[in-house]
Amino acid sequence: MSLEPPQELLLLHERLRSCRLCQDAGYLHRARPVLTDWGMRRGMMLIGQAPGVVEFDNGTPFGGRAGRELFRWLASVGIEEMEFRHRVYMCAVTRCFPGKSPTGNGDRKPSRPEIELCRPWLESILRILEPRVLLLVGGLAIERYLPGRRLDSIVGRRYEHEDQILIPLPHPSGASRWLNAREHRELLRDGLRQVRDLWDTVVDPAPEEPAERLPAPATVVR
Questions:
Q1: Does residue 166 fall inside a structural domain?
Q2: pLDDT at residue 2, as a whole number
Q3: Is residue 106, in this structure, part of any structural domain at all?
Q4: In CATH, what number is assigned to the domain containing residue 188?
Q5: Does residue 2 form part of some domain?
Q6: How many domains does the chain have?
Q7: DSSP codes of every residue in the chain
């Protein structure tokens, strides 16, 4: 497992930074793709929903309030923020801040056309990095791999899909009320333990044993 960023990914980042497809289509007032310059390793990859206004300003994935909550979660299982950022490629279903929700409650959810315009970028990165584990943070990322399922039926478990292990997690946004329920917080703790269980074997550069391959669609394995 190479610790150097794949050259193909660096070149893709150069092209992605200049993407204005959603702006040109009228979905965004101003496009500014948020990319990470860390964690360009094969092993584990995080897919979120979309950058927020803080990420739009500072250009760092999960660089705002939701990120602080995410890293508080990870610290609870012994994974510190800088360690995670350096080892895990962090991205999102869409790469630009979609703007505030018309209701005033959090950020606007990216539309289906925006997701489709951004999809080739995400698929290219998945092809280049071939991550063994995908952390699916929030509804849009979960819907891509585990469509039509309730959070309380999937959080706390891990799934094997083709050559990847999927770990769904709720979004750490303050706009979400899902974690107000005690039983949901326990499911989150179970999900974080799944991340911890895989951390040393998947994220470290040491070779790993091949996992049993199960047929699509994704099937729960633990």
A1: yes
A2: 52
A3: yes
A4: 3.40.470.10
A5: no
A6: 1
A7: ---SPPHHHHHHHHHHHT--HHHHTTS-SS------SS---SSEEEEES---HHHHHH--TT-SHHHHHHHHHHHTTT--HHHHHHHSEEEESS-S---B-TTSSSBPPPPHHHHHHHHHHHHHHHHHH--SEEEEESHHHHHHHSTT--HHHHTT--EEETTEEEEEE----TT--GGGSHHHHHHHHHHHHHHHHHIIIIISSS--PPPPP--SS-EE--
Encoding tokens for residue 43? 């092993």
List beta partners, residue 169.
137
**pLDDT, tens only, 58-73:** 999 999 999 999 999 9
> At residue 204, does pLDDT exceed 70?
no
Residues 38-57 as b/e (b if ≥16 CB within 10 A, e otherwise) read: bbbbbbbbbbbbbbbebbbe
Report whether pLDDT(34) > 70: yes
The answer to the question of residue 204 being in a domain is yes
> Which residue type occupies 218?
A
pLDDT tens-digit series, residues 137-174: 999 999 999 999 999 999 999 999 888 999 999 999 87
Gap between the Cα atoms of 28 and 158, Å rounded: 35
pLDDT at 215: 43
Using left for φ > 0, alpha for ψ between -120 and 50, and beta otherwise, residue 61 falls in: beta
